[in-house]
Design brief:
This protein has 149 residues and is an alpha/beta fold. It contains 5 helices and 5 strands; from the N terminus they run αββααβαββα.
Amino acid sequence: MSELLGDTYFMAIALKEAKMAMEAGEIPVGAVIVSKEQIIARASNNTEVLNDVTAHAEMIALTSAFNFLGSKYLPTCTLYVTLEPCVMCAGALRWSQIGRIVYGASDEKSGFMRYGKELLHPKTKVEFGVMHDECQHLLKTFFEQKRLT
């Protein structure tokens, strides 16, 4: 991957998606799926807007990527997501056989790593901490604002 289009570049785009979610009153999580240095899917949480607890950014991005590629498997793709995926999303990512997952902030309460990387496909690589502070700050700000209202 070129330096210009590296992990920080794509995570910054996922962070923009998360900020749009926050503006819409959603938990600020954004996701981007990349194939061959090209964004093929982007999404943000839509659980409130769609009244659907499964409308996580990762799930919506996966559906878009499957449709874009015309395939149910994504072994050459990378998911960039601002928050560690939950167990539900990890299950979908396993079935997608996604090649790589890069997440920003950890989720100690609901993140899949609490249960181990074994929830993912054995060939999926995981990296975390990319733009951690920015991702964490956005989430913290959102929940602080929620507590004030």
